Amino acid sequence: MTDLHQFRRIVWPLAVAETIVWAAIYYSFPALLPAWESDLGWSKTELTGAFTSALVVSALFAPVAGRLIDHGYGRHTFAGGAVLGAVMLLLLSQVTEIWQFYAMWIGLGACQAVLLYEPAFAVITRVYGPRYKQAILLMTFLGGLAS
Fold first, then answer.
1. Which residue from 98, 110, 105, 103 is spatially nearest to 46, judged by alpha carbons?
2. What is the pLDDT of residues 53-88, one digit of tens each?
3. The dihedral of CA 132, 134, 137, 141: what is its sign?
4. Cα 92 from chain centroid?
5. Euclidean distance between CA atoms 110 and 7, whole angstroms
6. What does the alpha-carbon distance between residue 123 and residue 66 come to, in Å, rounded to a whole number?
7. 7, 26, 35, 130: which is deepest, by most CB within 10 A?
8. Cα–Cα distance measured from residue 128 to residue 81, given in angstroms and rounded to the nearest whole number
9. Which residues contact residue 123 at a Cβ distance below 8 angstroms, ignoring those fewer than 6 apart?
10. With helix as H, strand as E and coil as C, how does the chain read?
């Protein structure tokens, strides 16, 4: 497989996926925070505690995600995280209790561990070896468009 073909087959789809993932499971929180605060009636402190929980869970699950990627399961890990993230976002739209809000964000934190830049960079580095820099540069640039 040529470098160009491999770039089109792996890097572009992963870069587009990163843009969508960052927008959906990271930047959606600050974007929707004012609406949640007014619609659900919970304080900003209560709401941001859920996002903090997601970040802690993401950090705790990151080594597991790294091991899965190192063992060659990057594609499956990423796909599973994306499906679970989509389900969590759908369920998030239906929450009525603060514990449900926290549960969804804790689940989204697990998704972040397998979907954000670090696991994507690990996949790219595994595929490209020492020629990874151009692929990571493109992915980072496109991912930045999510904000």
1. 98
2. 999 999 999 999 999 998 989 889 999 999 999 999
3. negative
4. 15
5. 28
6. 9
7. 26
8. 22
9. 14, 69, 74, 75, 78
10. CCHHHHHHHHHHHHHHHHHHHHHHHCCHHHHHHHHHHHHHCCCHHHHHHHHHHHHHHHHHHHHHHHHHHHCCCHHHHHHHHHHHHHHHHHHHCCCCCHHHHHHHHHHHHHHHHHHCHHHHHHHHHHHHHHHCHHHHHHHHHHHHCCC
Which residue has 């697990």 as its token pair?
110
The Cα 105–Cα 28 span in angstroms is: 11
Instruction: Answer yes or no: are the C-beta atoms of 78 and 115 closer than 8 Å.
Output: yes
> What pTM value is reported for the model?
0.87
- Tokens 């514990």 locate to 99
pLDDT in tens, 10-21: 788 888 888 898
CA distance 69 to 137: 20
